[in-house]
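Regression test case RT-17, inverse folding.

Input:
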């Protein structure tokens, strides 16, 4: 099982059960996925500060979008990845951004890297790879009902932001203790966090990224542990 509290539940069922606490195999899956290094389009120039918003819903976007004019004016680049990239939803976001005075371009139609500070991802299956382009990530669902997985941005070394609805996620709570997952409650919170990120040196951001990756790597190898345990106890 994943954690000690899980073991307690199994042992209550029967004292005769063989129970081993080994961790979460999903970390192995995420780490391996990032190592595959699937190609994606270039979005921004090297050295630019990038903020990625992954799997966002309208409730998340209501908090994020109002912060972007100031942040983009001060040099931050943004990758916005809606959970449901339907044309209707993308048009709605584009309209809101235009109303805020911000230019955007869709990933599938990128022509000029300097053409807009916001890139809207209108394809599926590349979010994990895009996290590697950013230093800070926001994970969607956390202003709605429950946050999506934070494993991918953490494995990519991103400082990971979540809204108030993240207590369903064990990894979010674990990495929150170390300051690598941070809760934001509103647009002002987001502005405060990202203003600090804009002023952070690239070397400092890189050092933080390495520390986050190290914490993730500690969780690697669970799949092998479990298969070894099965060979010993279930043969």
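Golden output:
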């Amino acid at each position: 099982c994943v954690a000690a509290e899980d073991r307690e539940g199994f042992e209550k069922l029967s004292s005769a059960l063989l129970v081993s606490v080994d961790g979460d195999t999903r970390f192995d899956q995420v780490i391996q996925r990032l190592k595959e290094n699937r190609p994606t389009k270039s979005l921004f120039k090297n050295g630019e500060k990038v903020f990625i918003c992954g799997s966002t819903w309208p409730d998340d976007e209501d908090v994020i979008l109002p912060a972007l004019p100031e942040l983009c004016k001060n040099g931050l680049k943004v990758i916005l990845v809606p959970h449901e990239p339907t044309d209707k939803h993308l048009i709605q976001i584009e309209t809101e951004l235009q109303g805020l005075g911000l230019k955007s371009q869709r990933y599938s139609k990128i022509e000029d890297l300097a053409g807009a500070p916001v890139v809207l991802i209108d394809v599926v299956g590349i979010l994990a790879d895009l996290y590697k382009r950013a230093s800070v990530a926001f994970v969607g669902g956390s202003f709605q009902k429950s946050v999506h997985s934070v494993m991918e941005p953490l494995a990519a070394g991103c400082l990971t932001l979540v809204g108030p609805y993240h207590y369903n996620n064990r990894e979010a709570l674990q990495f929150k203790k170390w300051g690598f997952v941070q809760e934001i409650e509103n647009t002002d919170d987001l502005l405060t966090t990202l203003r600090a990120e804009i002023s952070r040196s690239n070397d400092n951001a890189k050092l933080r990224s390495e520390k986050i990756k190290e914490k993730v790597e500690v969780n690697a190898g669970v799949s092998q542990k479990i298969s070894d345990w099965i060979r010993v106890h279930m043969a």
